[in-house]
Amino acid sequence: MGALLSTARSLLNLLLPFTNPNTPVIQDLIHTAVLCGTLYYAPQIAEYYNVCRNPPVYIDDTQQTGSEQDNAALGNPPDDIPIDENLVLQPDTDDGEEVEPPPLAPTPPPGQARAPPAEPAVWGGVNGDDQPQFAEAGPANADRPRPTPANRVVGAKKAKSLARKDQRRAYHEFHRQEAELRRLREAEGREEREAALQAEKARRAEVEREIAEREKSERERKKEEERREQEEERERRDRVVQRVRREVGGKGAVDLVDLAWEEGKDKVWIEKLIRASGMLSQVEKAGSHTMITGDGWLVRIDAVLMQKAYADAVAFGDSNEGKVSFSELGGILEKAVRARVKALAH
């Protein structure tokens, strides 16, 4: 591969100027002038060579019929293409066989002047010579109508080409007619479709309006329910707090669980409410302490209650060899609280 590349590079360096630094400048300039002149005159030299090698052949256009010219310009189309019946076909005469002449041209329309047929030549003039006598000079075939696409004589290949054109024209005409029919059908029912569309739009707008009104009323109802629930919750809290304050102030203790069940709530709710309302510090008096027991009681313990509890504990210890545990002390204190609540309730 390297040898091929080096060979190609050597050939290019040999053909192009200014590639070898050892070559004199004048030689490179002459090389450049020769190369430019060769490139400039090369097309003319090639054309002259082709003309000398293949001289042109001139053909008389009058000797070539119309069918031959058409056949030379067209390729071989398929043989199964239908041919228009109005065309006058001229059979191929490549084998030299004589054929009958084509039919006469159609009769010209009325009112058009028709030249009389040319008289045959008369042999033997007036002076007794043998020269034929012809009619006056004029255009050839003056009485024949001008050829048109409907009456011209064409070859088989040209006829097939015309048949293909007719097929394409019929194909496009068919699609054009189909499109026109579709447009007509659409135009016929356009008013009914537009009326139905407007009615459907109006119906949908009415349905959407009803849905929007229903959603609006639903939102308002929910807001009203939330507002009423909030109002009821606030009243419930105020009622519970007032009752707890009254019970603790009068009896010194209250059962929070019973109050919660009366309001439809639980122990956790009422404990949170009491702690959040600051009830524990509000109901305390001098020398007393307020607390929430494990059973859900809010109790205010003062000096009088503790004295009674200690007295009961001493009596219990005397009967139990002087031993009182914390749980037993708690039970004694609970009995004292319940006894005070029962006594104040009556």
Model description:
This protein has a domain at 252-345. It has 10 helices and 5 strands, in the order αααββααβαααββαα. The chain has helices at 2-15, 25-53, 66-73, 156-188, 190-251, 256-262, 267-277, 279-282, 303-318, 326-345; strands at 88-89, 153-154, 253-255, 289-292, 297-301. The longest helix is centred in the middle third of the chain and has 62 residues, at 190-251. The radius of gyration is 64 Å and the shape is elongated.
Which geometry do the CA atoms define? elongated
Helical content stands at 55-70%
Rg, alpha carbons: 64 Å
Order of helices and strands: HHHEEHHEHHHEEHH
Q: Structural class, from helix and strand content?
A: mainly alpha
* Amino- and carboxy-terminal Cα gap: 124 Å
Name the descriptors.
10 helices, two-stranded parallel ribbon, signal, 59% helix, mainly alpha, 346 residues, three-stranded antiparallel β-sheet
The gist of it:
The chain has 346 residues and is mainly alpha-helical. It has a domain at 252-345. 59% of the residues lie in helices and 5% in strands.
Secondary-structure blueprint of this entry?
Layout: H1 2-15, H2 25-53, H3 66-73, E1 88-89, E2 153-154, H4 156-188, H5 190-251, E3 253-255, H6 256-262, H7 267-277, H8 279-282, E4 289-292, E5 297-301, H9 303-318, H10 326-345
Parallel strand pairs: 1-2
Antiparallel strand pairs: 3-5, 4-5
Helix pairs in contact: 6-7, 9-10
Region (Disordered): 60-173, 185-240
Biased composition (Basic and acidic residues): 163-173
Keywords: Signal
